[in-house]
Input
Amino acid sequence: MEQITDGRELLMVIAGGKMHTFEDILALPEGERAELIDGEMFMMASPTRGHQDASGWFFVQIFNYIQAKKGKCRAYNSQFAVFPKKDDKNYVEPDVTVVCDRNKLDDRGCNGAPEWAIEIVSPSSVKMDYERKKKLYQESGVEEYWIVDLEKERVRVYRFMEDDQAKDYSFEDTVKPGIYEDLEFDLRRLKEYLEG
Output
């Protein structure tokens, strides 16, 4: 009988669930995407146009800022592979990822916690983004996590290196990331872009 050493694995076996690994992600039919948190697989729905617009808006501003500053960090848009716990049971694809430690990067993606992750909430991902991913990012060492909620017109910011308290910004506010002192996002411009 296979030895089970992890308490979560034991719970999943008792519940009749399967402990998934990255191999299961690779075996998915073409066009299907999923993420893993502690061996549990979560299928991903196709993003809406608004979701893609918001993701692109943040990515372009971050990318252009890094390029203008000749910064060492790298910004990646969605479908970039992140293995936040450096194992095969945790795999996510943040909508925007910023990695400053180049040693974490290889051809597969990011092995370890990125400095900054941004998720755009979809109707199907509310619990995932606000609860499961928040916990995963916090546990794995992500410095900053933003949840962009288009329906609520809000950006929730966690700066885990400071504390685990969230600060909410409306689409009428300006917000700055903690990892860059002179980068700011005028969320009114995001709102205008989404409505345009």
Remarks:
- The two ends are 60 Å apart (CA to CA).
- The first strand starts at residue 33 and ends at 37.
- Residues 49-69 form the longest helix (21 residues).
